Structure to design on (511 residues):
């Protein structure tokens, strides 16, 4: 006889909340029964990019801005966005339906103590549940492929550099690149209004994101698929950009407690390039004489802006990109294409089907160049046999490949041969999973209870599974109002179900 153990009975009904329904109008169970409150349920999961760290993002406030920010509510119908346990559940209001032709776009941002501030654009293209994992960079414990330099600059008199000053990021063992900034003698440090900051020293923090590891790409400030982008002609790029990066810098400086925002002279930046870097335009390895577009990011709004072209040179046997920095923000060496527009892209879509014994988990399904450079990805997704990842559009290049990696181990578990993304249409990728376990089909119904009204009702809600045996977050699921969810869970394994509602956790953890 098969048996599946669960601290909270997964085979019957999961009780979402057992509280009074008095705190806000959307908590009235009669509304939950008679009205569909939300569309496009969204689950955001914030994690430490360094999986070996014991520091986890826990409870914090998230800010939502952007074109469609007014359409976004929490799962309780509120417009104050408090993440709990690194999780935030959102939705589109009931009067709006997202489609590929009319997507919903908004920007989330948060600043958590000990982590680099994060800002990401979210795009919703259907009424189906959406899960997104956001990797955060722990400043005192950076991941492979990221180098951080913090120091105090003291050769300054009344806000003016006495001599030329050079800032070089350290080369870490797992990085193939470094960067150098050179500030000329006589340069004035300026605040946001262009006034000289009359200080005698500057605190600097320079973070360099290389391209040699997937971990580095996941923590890119602003993400690699921004929607708010100003092009070379000064106009917004319709559909945003999927950046194809050759490296990025985040530069922050303060003097006498005031942020340094610009300089009276440009800073000369020299960025070493990954020797395996492809030129997106030619499809060939990068070489001296090539150029790479340079972009800067407004770190308060997440808007990227085209700045210039960096010229590639060969110096002491290494390829470097040289460009000028005129103000402090994120600076990015990037080609790009648009998944939701026509910027360097094909109009054809791509379906990627996984063939695997894996069930659940946390994976990256990434479109890459022949040399392994990032083109676009479905981040932080669970998979199963027959799971399909949809790329709405593809970059206009001759060859690419799909690479699947396991976020829990960092290993590549599936890869396709090279193919033309503009003409392929669909492709299968075999994903190596664990041996096929003994599965049990489990039906889960989420139910809301209002004790003061003596009413029970099925509602739509996210719930999550946790596996105590290996201390891992398994997967998030969504049940439609009035419906249930069928799961395939491993026999004789203990799972914990949990959720939160209106600032409180509800789970099957033992008391």
């Amino acid at each position: 006889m098969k048996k599946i153990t669960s601290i909270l009975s997964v085979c019957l009904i999961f009780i979402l909340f057992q509280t009074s329904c008095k705190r806000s109008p959307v908590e009235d169970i009669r509304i939950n029964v008679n009205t569909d409150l939300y569309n496009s349920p969204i689950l955001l999961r914030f994690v430490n990019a360094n999986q070996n760290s014991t520091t986890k993002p826990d409870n914090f406030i998230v800010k939502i801005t952007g074109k469609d920010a007014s359409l976004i509510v929490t799962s309780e119908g509120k417009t104050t966005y408090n993440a709990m346990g690194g999780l935030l559940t959102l939705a589109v209001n009931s009067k709006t339906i997202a489609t590929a032709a009319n997507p919903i776009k908004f920007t989330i941002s948060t600043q958590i103590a000990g982590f680099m501030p994060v800002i990401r654009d979210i795009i919703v293209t259907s009424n189906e549940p959406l899960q997104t994992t956001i990797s955060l960079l722990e400043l005192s414990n950076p991941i492979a492929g990221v180098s951080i330099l913090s120091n105090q600059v003291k050769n300054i008199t009344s806000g003016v550099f006495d001599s030329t000053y050079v800032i070089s990021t350290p080369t870490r063992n797992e990085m193939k690149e470094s960067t150098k900034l050179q500030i000329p003698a006589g340069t004035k440090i300026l605040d946001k209004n262009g006034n000289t900051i009359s200080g005698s020293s500057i605190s600097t923090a320079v973070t360099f994101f290389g391209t040699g590891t997937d971990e580095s790409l996941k923590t890119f400030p602003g993400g690699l698929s921004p929607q708010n982008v100003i092009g070379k002609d000064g106009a917004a790029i319709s559909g945003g950009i999927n950046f194809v990066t050759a490296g990025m810098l985040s530069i922050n400086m303060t003097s006498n407690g005031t942020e340094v925002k610009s300089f009276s002279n440009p800073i000369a930046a020299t960025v070493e390039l990954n020797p395996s870097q492809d030129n997106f335009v030619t499809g060939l390895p990068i070489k001296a004489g090539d150029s790479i577009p340079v972009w800067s990011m407004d770190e308060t709004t997440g808007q990227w802006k085209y700045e210039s072209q960096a010229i590639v040179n060969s110096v002491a046997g290494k390829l470097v990109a040289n460009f000028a920095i005129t103000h402090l923000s994120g600076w990015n060496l990037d080609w790009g294409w648009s998944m939701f527009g026509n910027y360097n892209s094909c109009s054809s879509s791509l379906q990627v089907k996984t063939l695997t014994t894996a069930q659940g988990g946390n994976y990256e399904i990434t479109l890459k160049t022949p040399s392994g450079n990032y083109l676009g990805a479905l981040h932080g997704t669970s998979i199963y046999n027959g799971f399909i990842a949809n790329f709405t559009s593809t970059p206009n290049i001759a060859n690419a490949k799909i690479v699947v990696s396991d976020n829990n181990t960092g290993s590549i578990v599936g890869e396709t041969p090279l193919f033309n993304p503009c003409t392929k249409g669909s492709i299968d990728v075999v994903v190596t999973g664990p041996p096929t376990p003994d599965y049990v089909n489990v039906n889960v119904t989420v139910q809301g209870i209002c004790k003061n009204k003596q009413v029970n009702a099925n509602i739509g809600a996210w719930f999550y599974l946790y596996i105590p045996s290996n201390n891992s977050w398994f997967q998030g699921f969504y049940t439609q109002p009035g419906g249930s969810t069928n799961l395939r869970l491993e026999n004789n394994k203990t799972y914990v179900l949990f959720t939160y509602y209106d600032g409180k956790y509800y789970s099957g953890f033992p008391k």
Notes: The helical segments are 29-34, 214-218.
